[in-house]
Amino acid sequence: MKLIRDFIILLACLLAGKGIAALLPFAFPGSIIGLLLLFLLLNFQLIPLPWVHDGGLLILRHMALLFIPVAAGLLGYVDVLSQGLGLIIGAAFSGLVLILLVVGRLYQRMQP
């Protein structure tokens, strides 16, 4: 019964986020809005954490299964991905280096 309550709360936040996204004049993912809504509800303690904890853990435990359809969909674009593979790897690596440099610099500035 507890997992049903957890999933109902998570689903309600998702559907509310999708509803808000439909009202916006620009395109924005409803799932992100739902996640922000859940964060705000938990942050302001309108929903206690134990109400969604077990359902969230169950979803996180099986998250790898949720990425299988995405990976299978990418197989249809192997030719496009292989053409830009160098660019993709270069962008990922340069982004990683940039993030490490910025975080390192901020850490150094925050130390007394």
UniProtKB/TrEMBL annotation:
Q: Could you say which residues form the signal peptide?
A: none
Q: Name one Pfam family in it.
A: LrgA
Keyword Lipoprotein set for record: no
Q: Which UniProt keywords apply?
A: Cell membrane, Hydrolase, Membrane, Transmembrane, Transmembrane helix
InterPro entries per UniProt: LrgA/CidA
- Gene Ontology terms, MF aspect: hydrolase activity
Q: Which residues cross the membrane?
A: 31-52, 59-78, 84-107
Q: Where in the cell is it found?
A: Cell membrane
Give the main localization category.
membrane
Topology relative to the lipid bilayer, per the entry, is: Multi-pass membrane protein
Q: Name one GO cellular component term.
A: plasma membrane
Which protein is depicted? Murein hydrolase regulator LrgA
> Where does this protein come from, organism-wise?
Zobellella taiwanensis
